[in-house]
Design brief:
Helix Hairpins, Small-conductance mechanosensitive channel, SH3 type barrels, Alpha-Beta Plaits, 3-stranded antiparallel beta sheet, about 270 residues, alpha+beta
């Protein structure tokens, strides 16, 4: 016991020094952990204000927390006099290994964040992206769920979406219907044009502004082609499209104006 007391008396200055360092390290750890929590909360609030998906906001906030907390631990260890260079090297190597192993997932995550921040589309929009088309049902961290008109579900990696052109059919409130109607060369073009206009005039879902267009666009091989381009509200696009196709055919038939169709003449030669 006397030996221990003598050692304490002889090294009292060193003990006090390390005790102070330990207390400072604990204070750094306590304050740093609070700062990490504060940064996590502020990150989540920032994402909430941007109306970003909560899953993405939570994930990014947890990454911010981990980074600040790791920095706090390194600072506390450094305060105790422990060499942290080796720890930093190990963390760097581990981060590189994880990054290489998960580069596909990280790419999908980054693309998911870009989708939510840049908002090329939102849930409920009908889009074409990455060679697929459908209504957006879910935008998740790593993938986006599309539903096709025939009720198929497509799960697309976010990197595939952001790495290709995106066509959003729902963003604008109005759309133009583009029809090409061919009539025979023997048809009266003025009459054919009047028939097409009469069909459009009877369609109540068409917008008055912009006005529709009916014009000859091409003298094709077997037909004179008209472009018929009315504008509708985006929600009315397909119902109006289908009805116009049917009504135009009926109106042309009633006016005895033929719509050419491919024909093949077969000549038979009898050999003697």
């Amino acid at each position: 016991m006397d030996t221990i007391m003598n050692w304490i008396n002889e090294n009292s200055g060193l003990i006090i020094h390390y005790a102070v360092q330990a207390v400072l390290a604990l204070i750094i750890f306590f304050i740093g952990s609070r700062i990490a929590k504060f940064c996590e909360g502020m990150t989540e609030k920032a994402f909430d204000k941007k109306k970003v998906d909560k899953a993405v906001g939570s994930f990014v906030a947890s990454i911010v927390y981990a980074i600040v907390f790791a920095a706090t631990i390194l600072m506390a260890l450094s305060q105790l006099g422990i060499e942290t260079t080796s720890f930093i090297a190990i963390l760097g190597a581990a981060g590189l290994a994880v990054g290489l192993a998960l580069q596909g997932s990280l790419s999908n995550f980054a693309s998911g964040v870009l989708i939510i921040l840049l908002r090329p589309f939102k849930s409920g929009d009908y889009v074409e992206a990455g060679g697929k088309a459908g209504t957006v049902k879910k935008i998740e961290i790593f993938s986006t769920e599309l539903r096709t008109p025939d009720n198929k579900v497509i799960i697309m990696p976010n990197s595939s979406i952001m790495g290709s052109p995106i066509t959003n059919f729902s963003r604008e409130s109005t759309r133009r219907i583009d029809l090409v109607i061919g009539v025979g060369y023997d048809a009266d073009l003025k009459e054919a044009k009047a028939v097409l206009k009469s069909v459009l005039d009877k369609e109540s879902r068409l917008l008055k502004d912009p006005a529709y267009t009916v014009a000859v666009s091409e003298l094709a091989d077997s037909s004179v082609n008209f472009v018929v381009r009315p504008w509708v509200n985006s929600a009315d696009y397909w119902p109006t499209y289908f009805d116009l196709m049917e009504n135009i055919k009926i109106a042309l038939d009633d006016a005895n104006i033929t719509i050419p169709f491919p024909q093949m003449d077969v000549h038979l030669h009898k050999e003697d």
